């Protein structure tokens, strides 16, 4: 009689089991298109050279050196103008129709 109870319990437990197994990890491939900036082909202008050290102690020479550096940077055709032209060129390339 005890054998029948053990067999009945074993059959009941076996009926609860399934042969379908679920994967432990689910893998999904997602494709997303994003827009990125294109690098500009314009070469940046060369910066003006730094001031020589030590600076002149004579006030007249110091004003002359600083004035020359200011003209080299902000004067017509100076570094500031060339840098602005390079940035404008990149902006023109960036706004071309696609």
Key features of this structure:
single chain, mainly alpha, 98 residues
Describe the structure in your own words.
This protein is an all-alpha fold and 98 residues long. It has a domain at 56-98. Helices cover 48% and strands 0% of the residues. It contains three helices and no strands. The longest helix has 16 residues, at 59-74. The protein is rod-shaped. The mean pLDDT is 83.
Helix content: 40-55%
Number of strands: 0
Summarize the main sheet: none
SSE run: HHH
The radius of gyration computed from the alpha-carbon positions, rounded to a whole number of angstroms, is 39 Å
State the shape: rod-shaped
Low-confidence segments, given as residue ranges, are none
Structural class call reads mainly alpha
- Beta-strand level of the residues, as a percent range? under 5%
Specify the number of helices: 3
Instruction: Give the termini distance in whole angstroms.
Output: 86 Å
How is this fold's topology laid out?
Elements: H1 2-16, H2 59-74, H3 79-94
